[in-house]
């Protein structure tokens, strides 16, 4: 444990950020704290926020008036208590800001437009055999033009940015995806974020697709008081993400949470990677081997019913492999939970989670405190929503590690 005399500068910054400050220079940070509290807990009165942040009532009033003037907050109906003046709850204005999320996938691209609450206001999708940079750019520009045409001038000015979620080093997966090598090589050295930034009037952000899905669970999902969790997203290629101290952690090379590369045993006990067992491409390969037609619409429950026993066996195998990956993750970091999500209907996701829980009980985990295995709460569109969460988090939020200590306890016992 770090002694008080040896706390690093980074630790001191984290500690000091846990409460608000009345200094004018920190007003922007204080606004982010307020917006984050309102996103996490819903409508709050000024007195609630003052108690939670230790900011003065005057400072909170100034912040709330400024955010309301900018259109980011709206007033609720006055709430009368037993004594004193009625309190006025303030909440996020859904139309306060808009965010775009682009998911670039193996067989499709998806663009969503979300409001300040993370609700999808518009979406577009394009199917393809495999993606190329130019086809992706054309889809985005066309779909974005249609979406922006449907916004009023004021709404258009409130588009705060575009997030892109895509597999990193996409060219390396050509063989597994069944794609032409020469076309996939077009992604090598191609900076799509920089390309789109040159064409668009708002900031553009880029993140790994599975990490983005993890970010969607953190920002838009129902994670409650969880501060540390490992996240698995089952798509064409399984991947994941890591949340530490309430923040999405991608590491110095943006490779943290590359869970698809985690070693797990196959049916014969031979070590392989998680990606070789729990990816949807593995299910599709097995279906071709059994002379069954392959569906790329795995969000349709009928596709799973048509896959029959092939899908049943894959679900069981994926659950066992995920259980091993969860134990391995817990041996490194004391995660509170492991969350499983995927490009699939909720009923299929539930089956995989149940298989993982059953397999976990049979594994030797002596000496470990195993995390609770949970289903994801965002759904199959988590990657696109996670992409949209990138500009939201960057411009308006702070991590839960910078929120005041005891926030959760406060809402269990208090409130005006």
Main sheet record = 5 strands, mixed
Q: Which stretches of 5+ consecutive residues score pLDDT under 50?
A: 1-27, 405-416
Structural class designation = alpha/beta
Global geometry = globular
Instruction: Write the CATH homologous superfamily of the largest domain.
Output: ATPase, nucleotide binding domain
Work out the number of β strands: 14
Tally of separate helices: 17
Strand order of the largest sheet: 5-4-3-6-7
Task: Classify the fold: give the CATH topology of the largest domain.
Answer: Nucleotidyltransferase, domain 5
Rg, nearest Å: 23 Å
User: How much strand content do the residues show?
Assistant: 15-25%
Average pLDDT rating: 85
CATH class category of the largest domain: Alpha Beta
Q: In the CATH classification, which architecture of the largest domain applies?
A: 2-Layer Sandwich
Helicity, as a percent range? 40-55%
Give the termini distance in whole angstroms: 39 Å
The tally of domains stands at 3
Features:
single chain; 416 residues; alpha/beta; Arc Repressor Mutant, subunit A; Nucleotidyltransferase, domain 5; 3 domains; five-stranded mixed sheet; 42% helix; 17% strand; disordered N terminus
Brief summary:
The chain is of the alpha/beta class and 416 residues long. It contains 17 helices and 14 strands.
Polypeptide structure, described:
It is a single chain. With 416 residues, the protein is an alpha/beta fold. It folds into three domains: 16-93, Winged helix-like DNA-binding domain superfamily/Winged helix DNA-binding domain (Arc Repressor Mutant, subunit A); 98-214 and 384-396, Nucleotidyltransferase, domain 5; 222-377, 2-Layer Sandwich (Nucleotidyltransferase, domain 5), CATH 3.30.420.40. Helix content is 42%, strand content 17%. The protein contains 17 helices and 14 strands. The protein has helices at 9-16, 27-41, 46-53, 57-69, 133-149, 153-157, 174-177, 181-184, 192-199, 209-220, 275-278, 280-289, 301-307, 309-330, 346-361, 382-396, 407-413; strands spanning 73-75, 90-92, 98-104, 108-114, 120-127, 159-166, 204-208, 229-234, 239-244, 247-249, 263-265, 271-273, 337-342, 372-375. The strands form four sheets. It has a five-stranded mixed beta sheet, sandwiched between helices. Strands 10-9-8-13-14 form a five-stranded mixed beta sheet, with helices on both faces. A two-stranded antiparallel sheet has the order 1-2. The chain is globular, with a radius of gyration of 23 Å. It starts with 8 loop residues before the first helix and ends with a helix. The relative contact order is 0.14. Mean pLDDT is 85; it is low at 1-27 and 405-416.
